[in-house]
Amino acid sequence: MNLKARDIMVKEVKSINGDCSVYKAVELLINSNINCLPVLDRDNCFIGIVTETDLLYVDKKLNPSSFYAYSEANIPINRRILKDSINELKSLKISQIMTTEVVSVDEDATIEELIDIIVNKGIKTIPVLKNNRLIGIVTRKNILKYYL
After folding, report:
1. Residue 24 to residue 61: CA distance in whole angstroms
2. Which residue from 14, 22, 69, 111 lies 20 to 30 Å from 2 (Cα-Cα)?
3. Per-residue model confidence (pLDDT) at position 2
4. 133-139 vs 36-40, strand pairing mode
5. Structural domain tally of the chain?
């Protein structure tokens, strides 16, 4: 069987608007146990993606001490600095930090093409688009599931 993106994609995808705050994205990622959020404009067209890595990078720029606290260095976080960092995250918009150069596929992409993107481009989640509208995503787990 020649599997296509449409056969294995997740169709119910959590997404976020580019005008939402970075803080809201962090909440959504954590509460939904996902690693990225497709970003849609007001017309629900796909305009980018925000990943856990994007968010950690922003936090590193805002507050280097909190970045090191994530690492094995285990440097204590100053509470005032952390509060200031959280306030800045609440005012920063997703459109300011999202990745706009996103590798995406259409629903007819083969499983071989999907694997090639994941392996050779190091991408964990691939948006599936139709007429610039998000219709699903394919993750590494979606592909691995079909090997069982």
Report:
1. 18
2. 14
3. 86
4. unpaired
5. 1
